[in-house]
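Hi there,

I know you've been waiting on this one. I reran it after we fixed the sequence typo, so this is the corrected version. Both the input and the resulting structure follow.
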Amino acid sequence: MQKQEYTITVYTENQIGLLNRIAIIFSRRKINVFSLNTSPSEVDSVHRFTIVINETEEVVRKLCRQIEKQVEVLKAYYNTNEEIVWQELALYKVPTDVIAAEVKVERLLSQHGAKAVVIRKDYTVFEVTGHREETDNLIRVLEPFGLIEFVRSARVAIIKASDGFHHKLKEFEGHEPGSDVMENEYLDKHQEIFSM
């Protein structure tokens, strides 16, 4: 199997220490995380982790199963880039005098969909949202004009073929408990099980 970029979406309860336990799952397997974003989800008190890795599907499937074993994790999904809608936000700091003097730079920024966020005497900060290739391309464009600083956010993604996790939770809540009574096979074997 060939490695490719996968986005793992994890729905969780918001508990202290969970991020660390999920990170350990990746570090034990020596898997590099390219992007990690945590945010509230559409469901009250449920958080969403968006994790980007480059691995084979078999490894990603096993990772999702391992992540779901965490008590606070409600569900983990994995998707290819074709199965999601995703964006990243990038900020670029460039000298204001260059922007004012070079009309060409302003034209380049408008061609890349950049908008000014902060304009000061010494620097101007521009914002661009898009895929990584788009934000990386603008770095190369601005470097000759004295790019001072660059930062890119983690990926945010929505699964294309999904009714949303809220729908799945409602569906789960709608199921009535089964009427079948199951006997506990160990109920009368207290001495055998708990004796030393």
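Quick highlight: Residues 85-152 form a domain with the Alpha-Beta Plaits fold (CATH 3.30.70.1150).

Best,
R. S.
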